[in-house]
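FAQ: What does a multi-protein file look like?

Like this. Sequence, then tokens, then the next protein.
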Amino acid sequence: MEVLEQPEWQARADAHRRRTDAWTAPHLARRRAGEAHPVEDFLFTYYSHRPSRLAQWHPGAGVVLAGAADYGRDYTDTPGGATLDVAALMERRGTSVAWIADLLAATASRPAFHGCFGLHEWAMVYRTPRARHDSWPMRLAPGDIAAVVEERGVRCSHFDAFRFFTAPARPLNVLRPTRETQRDLEQPGCLHANMDLYKWAYKLSPLVPSELVADCFELARDIRLVDMRASPYDLAPLGHEPIRVETAEGRAEYAGLQRSFTERAAPLRARLHAACARLLPRPRSVGRMAHDP
């Protein structure tokens, strides 16, 4: 067990709250005002992790908080301080932890594909009279959006993106992802698979350090901005210039950003997988992950 003295763990908790406040405070202010932001609010509406939970700091498994008592749910008091009751947590969550570990390792084992050009967002508004974010205008006419989708085709491997495709767009996708085939199809170049590292991080919380959850949130936030800039929505009033993936120059820009996200995601995926491996009684992965410590 690692022991954190009180000044150290309190400083980490304070730093984590300051870091997350920069993300949660504007969202909560908009929510009170009845306003919405298609980029900044997405991670709080699409994902189920509440702002208050993101702000709560946890040291992760195997750490004693010296001087702490009654630290909260899932913690137990010891003579040295408060620590997570890992055995009780794993009794409830062991199956989930193993599933997440398998998905992380399987995703990392595949080569990254950088040729989708973000057309999943286009497929979500393909030949439909009502867009998902209907409070924001499109920067192209419906016929032009349809022409791009039909000319380029769609190669989306992520089920949680594919399930929002319009009915006419689904047959245009090269793959037919399902929840059951998620482990077999996800690959490390996918923006949504890398955004979902935040989901796996908070589902593992409090068993993983909150700094890791925040690192994954920060990556997901940056990915979401690129995701929407490459979409057919017009977000120029928000100060976000489009990535015009309907052009060769735009596709090259998108692919370059996609590669950078792949590189940023790899060590985060490895850290999450390593945390799972330490919790599980035996390896539950498809081989050693790249970047594993």
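And here is the next protein:
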Amino acid sequence: MLLPAVHGLARRHPDARLRILTHEPGADLVRADPAVGEVRTPRHGGPGAERAAVVEALAARRPDLAVGTTRYDGIPDLLVAGSGRTVTNLWRDPPPHQPVGERYLEILHAEGLLDAADRATRPRVHLPEEAHRAGERTVRHLVGEPLAPPVVLVTDAGMAVKRWPARHWRALAAALTRRGHPVFTVGPVDADAPLGVPLPRVDLPTLAGQFAAVGRRGGVVVGPDTGPVRLAAAAGAATVVLFGPTDARRYGTGDVDLQGLPDCPYRRPTAITEQPCWWEAHCPLSAAGPACMTDLDVDAVLAAVTAA
């Protein structure tokens, strides 16, 4: 979601050296980006790692401009004290249904740091050539000469509250297979009821290369509101995203975003972590699991995939 801001700042400041401080493994997605001069990551994964990394980065060179999305551990205050100019909260005062990425760009435009044209930029990840080649080799080998474009199912979400029911995944995979679509999977699947061919476990740039190869064949990546699906969109593949506890109007990718239970009274678009279901997936509306995810009908998802 931050890539358009990164690329917009680089375009507006062509003589500057842009440094990014982020976490592994996501750092691999910007190391090959021509807009980025340096990528830094915390030295360890323990408490205080991010704050220590910010202190180290500021000591290495005082930036003329610091832009931050991190709000904990006193990091905004560090940036203010150690930088020439700062924009330390790209989340501030969000309208309930404005996409997060658009909010970032709007704030930076209001600060005079981006042009109006930058506000329409979509996320795009720049990959090393080897990642492109590796992704192409894998997909070409697995796809062959299909009757219909390939479809990738991203079955996990990192959080139970965002997971689509396994029975829905099985029904979708079966329907796609009957229509001639090669079906691939990313993430855990039921060994007793495989959904399709698992894509090889690879690093993030190579996974993005696989998604790009699927996109070049007119394929679609389907999954919940989670990182791999966003990566697929940034790599150029069409996506169908299944939204439950998060609001598609705020977190959507811009391709096909399907919202389960759109009138849920417990959904809080700008305060998702305060929803009663968020951390433990205990849905106030259903003891069987998140009602919003179950509400996403297989036929509706199938129609969206085949139309994408």
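Q: Is there any per-entry metadata?
A: Some entries carry free-text notes. For the entry above: The chain has a mean pLDDT of 94.
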